[in-house]
Amino acid sequence: MKDEITSRDDRVANLKGMGCSRKRVEDARFTQGKGNYVDDIKLDGMLFGDFVRSPYAHARIKSVNSEAALKVPGVLAVLTAEDLAPLGLHWMPTLAGDKQMVLADGKVLFQGQEVAFVVAEDRYAAADGIEAVEVEYEELPVIVDPFKSLESDVVLREDTVDENGKATDGAHGPRKHPNHIFTWEVGEKDATEQVIDEADVVATETMYYHRTHPCPLETCGSVASMDKVNGKLTLWGTFQAPHAIRTIVSLISGLEEHNIRVISPDIGGGFGNKVGAYPGYVCSVVASIVTGRPVKWIEDRMDNLMTTAFARDYWMTGKISATKEGKITGLHCNVTADHGGFDACADPTKFPAGFMNICTGSYDIPTAYLAVDGVYTNKAPGGVSYRCSFRVTEAVYFIERMIEVLAIELNMDAAELRRINFIKKDQFPYQSALGWEYDSGDYHTAWDKALKTVDYDGLRAEQAERVEAFKRGETRKIMGIGLSFFTEIVGAGPVKNCDILGLGMFDSCEIRIHPTGSAIARLGTISQGQGHATTFAQILASEIGLPADSITVEEGDTDTAPYGLGTYGSRSTPVAGAATAMAGRKIRAKAQMIAAYLLEVHDDDVEFDVDRFVVKGAPERFKTMKEIAFAAYNQAIPGIEPGLEAVSYYDPPNMTYPFGAYICVMDIDVDTGVTDIRRFYALDDCGTRINPMIIEGQVHGGLTEALAVALGQEIAYDDQGNVKTGTLMDFFLPTAWEVPNYETDHTVTPSPHHPIGAKGVGESPHVGGVPCFSNAVQDAFRPFGLRHTNMPHDHWRIWKTANSLGMHD
Ligand code: CDP
């Protein structure tokens, strides 16, 4: 075959492999409205199902009367818990080892809970049917405060007590109270308390990381189609983990797994919202089995915000101790976690509070202790990792606020306090006091680069001048410098530590090279906008020497993709990206043997060079990967099977620990509470960078969601359990208007155990961004006496902070 590109640089460029800002291949369809989302799926005879939802946060269901609804033209069926009970489907397992009602079984536990499922010819008839279902409720006392829940005589879940009213054991051990879900402890309690008792300086703070919601552009939904003739169920849905959904559907329905095909088509954002299983999935399947027709269920925006997986809702109390010079000696953290009506967190089984035990952050803290109590309340279930790896956002917010209050206590500059306590480069791999082994890092280099770039000393001088000017009455605007340094923990497994419902958290890639030298790679992950089709082809291009443009990446169809645990917690690159590289290496190993045969030399006498195998010392003698692929299918090679395919199931030896240094400069008008982000600098280190342009996009997106959470986004309840922010009129989604210009930067500290040295990045900017925006607000008020104020820092709350500090006097 003719080799048309001769210069090595040209050959490298032609591959569009790792390190190049290859344009996103998926955008052709997304930008032209040609994406294929769940709601785009239209099947012959398809029905539409939707829920009757509870207006009450806590009530007994006295009766459900469907008679009138069944008379509504177009309504075919109304499913209730009674209909699902004989099938054992009125409750379903959650990913956290709890169980959740699919349809209200005797009572409801949160506003918007699914009470009945109306199946109709179209969504309009379904809506009319919903109106006609008569439900008689008896209101019960509502608990929206987890602390009150633990003291209350009101038992929220009847399945948490025995016949004598005594609390039974939960999935993670004994309950202290019927409304208590678990206690999770890590670290050394007594030793930590002793260190803190004996310390020169101790800072204590309680902070609330408010309840919020991932709010993806596309809401959740599914289409179930039961083919009764062949006994096959096909389920399309907004699934971040399609294989796990297939296994769960098989386990709870009794259908054999090979008769279930789960397909995640294009997904319009997930951010953790689409990891778990929802009643809508179960009901669409049951309705399809009952009616023999395909059934679609799609949430509207209010359904999504009010009922599907929320995030955060952590009350965190910390104590941090240090020497007079600022060296941290101990950290104590107590969390009360509000899980709502069911524990539907999506965490690996052994980690009921996710990776909250990374709350020692980027600092060398010798002694630490963490205790988390999970609690039921009358709020929606969830507790998902909204653009973070299992509660890392909470952990990083906690430690980055504790550092700031410690700096106040020590009367020290917070940047300097961080520098004194960073884990040093030569301490990696670093064993943290709460059980993690950080793979690699160079925090001082990143921090110094960040501070220098923004002229940190200059900013502090300007801030001091501004404080004086404010005090003299010359300005009503104050200035905050938000600092944050974060370490993420991404890439769950390894299997020995991490499983969800017993499913080990490895991931996979299968590659088939076609005879003409193009390829298809299938992975166990599923992109929700991150650009996997672009970047995984780049990994392969570099590994197997075929152009990325000749490699199709396919995800999300359980009939074709190898088993994998899906995409969330920035695990795709650390786990499936590693599987991709490893599968590519298997291809390359076989290609080497084929090349050696074709070139009539020993296997060891050829070496890989960009897109070919070359005879060592004779560069003019080579076979390109294209030629090798052709030979693999068309030439009888002694001792070598025809074909060129490989599969890799990758169980990572450890997680990866990306990190970053963020600085936000913010002006605040104390009379209006309006914030103006003057500058935002974000330095990320995600190890080897596959596609710098995609990384930049991920950073912009993550920071924007961080801005949202820090400055306004929340799921708020009144004391009757009514959701006050159930529409986009009330729930803050930033637009171009609020978003500042982000300056991105990077250092590169490869992961030593990842085949290509890459760490995840998708969630880092969210994890590091939230404390950075929040610290900017808090830092602005620090010279006026503020120690801590809770997020979200919307204009009204900022105004109140200024007012409480006497700044309006
Ligand atoms: O699991 P998820 O895809 O959400 O997160 P990720 O693994 O952090 O990857 C997000 C996107 O950034 C993917 O398209 C990755 O391939 C890309 N990425 C990269 O180009 N270089 C890295 N070192 C890490 C991620």
TrEMBL record:
Signal peptide: none annotated. Coiled coil: none annotated. Residues 32-141 form the Aldehyde oxidase/xanthine dehydrogenase a/b hammerhead domain. One of its GO terms (molecular function) is carbon-monoxide oxygenase activity. Its EC number is 1.2.5.3. Its cofactor is Cu(+); Mo-molybdopterin cytosine dinucleotide. The keyword Metal-binding applies. It is an enzyme of class 1 (oxidoreductase). Keywords: Copper, Metal-binding, Molybdenum, Oxidoreductase. Gene3D superfamilies: Aldehyde oxidase/xanthine dehydrogenase, a/b hammerhead (3.90.1170.50), Aldehyde oxidase/xanthine dehydrogenase, molybdopterin binding domain (3.30.365.10). It catalyses: CO + a quinone + H2O = a quinol + CO2. InterPro entries: Ald_Oxase/Xan_DH_a/b (IPR000674), Ald_Oxase/Xan_DH_a/b_sf (IPR036856), Ald_Oxase/xanthine_DH-like (IPR016208), AldOxase/xan_DH_MoCoBD1 (IPR008274), AldOxase/xan_DH_MoCoBD2 (IPR046867), AldOxase/xan_DH_Mopterin-bd_sf (IPR037165), CO_Mo_DH_lsu (IPR012780). It comes from the Bacteria. Catalyzes the oxidation of carbon monoxide to carbon dioxide. Dimer of heterotrimers. Each heterotrimer consists of a large, a medium and a small subunit. This is Carbon monoxide dehydrogenase large chain. The lineage of its organism: Bacteria, Pseudomonadati, Pseudomonadota, Alphaproteobacteria, Rhodobacterales. The gene is coxL.
